[in-house]
Amino acid sequence: METTNLQMNKRRPKVFIGSSSKGLPVASAIQEGLYDYYEVDVWNQGVFGLMQVNIDALIEAGNDFDYAILILTPDDEVTSNSATTPSPRDNVIFEIGFFLGALGKEKTFIVHDRTANIKIPTDLAGLSFAKFAPVNNGNYTAALGPACNKIKLKIDEIENRQGPIDGVHLLVQSALQLVSKALTAPVDINVSKLRAFIFKKEDSILVCTHFWAPYPVIEVVGDLKFDINPLTVEQVAVVKAANKKRVIGVPVSPLSTEIDGVEGDVDEGLCFVLAAPILGPRGEVWGTVDFDASSEEGANLLRQPMAQNVIFELGKHLYMTLVNQKS
Q: Among 52, 250, 267, 286, which residue's beta carbon has the most beta carbons within 10 A?
């Protein structure tokens, strides 16, 4: 069986980005980080006519867009109990409330500087927040990378729930595309010998249920299995990730069935594995997801800190997709 890139044939989701004037550099960086995947419009790019925000324009935006990202910046100050703290503009808070009503809290995202100590209304608790580190060199694109990754994986999870496309493979492919952008000179994931595997925990065994590769590989679904035992916990990254409940990245020598608890064929050229747990809502281990590489180019990609962040987020989002597909 050959597994190749999944092709999508559906309308790209439309994303609105709102902010104050002070937040426009952040909005532009988020637009740059997401425009390859969605139709993304910032509020000052014709969404509100001649840059005039009014209720009619907001209602129209609520009908036109699928998702909204609102950026909170310390534009004003508010004094409470003799303490003065930075606060966002009232109109941005109003827009958050509007899009919550129009799109729902799952499709409304809030982005803010994690160090700004902005006073955020308590009514916004429970929303999807994405934070970024402050920048001193003006490179907002780099600073907003993790926030864009988090938002993209969430949007893809929602889209996969709603559509007929194989959501698991699409999520994995999207994550690998994000990882490829971690390098100064992004690599082509189709030629970098990268693959992805998903393992489901069944009693004390991890069983392969899905795999993805841009080139022909041996069919492994149901055949590749790892017992969870003291030996595999120490020597097999996917088992260790499940046991430790954290991301594990290790260079490896080719595995073999001589290791007690390994069943199935493993790529002889395997040189690096990056694995993360797939956790349920109460922290229980559903299984693991791993990216592996059989080339030095692919291994260098998986060594990047961005790759660890992406696979960790992927593990969180895969749970709902897998459960909904009754995998």
A: 286
